[in-house]
Amino acid sequence: MENKHEYNIAVLLPTRGRTDALSRSVISLVNRALDKNKVQLLLAFDSDDEIGYNHFDTELAPWLDDRGVQYEALEFDPLGYEGLNQYYNALAASADADWFFVWNDDAIMETTGWDRIIASKTGEFKLFAVRTHRDHPYSIFPIIPREWYDTMGFFSR
Description:
It contains five helices and six strands; from the N terminus they run E-H-E-H-E-H-E-H-E-E-H. The chain is of the alpha/beta class. Helix 1 (19-32) runs parallel beside helix 2. The two termini are 29 Å apart. The model has no long low-confidence stretch (mean pLDDT 92).
């Protein structure tokens, strides 16, 4: 099936004050992606997270620019973990990708070509899960097709 959006995958990544962890996480994603130009990175920062956003702006964004990675940083009034769904809904609304990939700032990608694995599933209307190092019984990093979001009208309730 042909891709319908500019990117294959939108990585949805809310973060707060985790400068070193965020850099390690994002760098692992980028360095293990084979088609960086088909990955859209969407980050959510709280408006009062000056440390996190300044680190992103001065350290991580230039690194991403040097590698030609498409990204967008959205700012939110602080919502906390109770409002995590609102971060994901807003990030998904900004995405232009066939797949939405939930990610966080303390995760490290270990699979080279993860982006091509996901993109190869385009056209399948199902949820995919990342295998985690502790084989968590639930999908803590779900990967959903854009069509789920379009059909339901939200990413998470």
